[in-house]
Amino acid sequence: MSKKTNLPETDEGATLFNIDPMIMKWHYEVDYIHSYAQDSPFFAGLSQGKLLGSACMKCPSRFATPRAHCMTCGAKTEWFELPHEGKIHTFTTCFFGGEAFLKETPFTLILVEFTGVDTLFLSRLIGEHSEGIRIGMSVQARFLRKSRFKVTDVYFVLKADRND
Fold first, then answer.
1. Domain ranges, ordered by start, for the chain
2. Short-list 65, 129, 63, 123, CA closest to 89
3. How far is CA 133 from CA 101, 102, 136, 149, 157, in A?
4. Residues in CB range of 49: below 8 A, 6 or more apart
5. Helix-, strand-, coil-residue percentages of the chain, each rounded to 5
6. What is the pLDDT of residues 79-105, one digit of tens each?
7. 3-class DSSP state for residue 118?
């Protein structure tokens, strides 16, 4: 005589939404291994409260966003620390966003201009500012206390002692 064997049952399963065609939902999880390669110092810097840019060693070009080679002459770049203060070059208010930002809508994106840097830095402007945002306003970088090693680890707030 053979002994009956049953698989253990769990609460996991699929939720059926439609039969024809069959549409169902089930939980799926995967660990994702990612490398920032040559941009790794930028993301490591964010975790230490540093905003790093790239400077060309052959020409005077300085970039607010990481790049391994100069956009002007093609030479290799080196890291330098950007100031934590800048000015709003332009801005937009987003009323719709990707899944990661849905709870924050509406939110404001700004392009930050740093003195002596040739390119702009895209980031979020956080805080109570409603309709009062203007081009040229002073902003200050802030960093998440617990780094996620993402570009959203840095954000900007309006500088308290603005002179604009």
1. 37-158
2. 123
3. 20, 22, 9, 28, 11
4. 143
5. 10, 35, 55
6. 999 999 999 999 999 999 888 888 888
7. coil
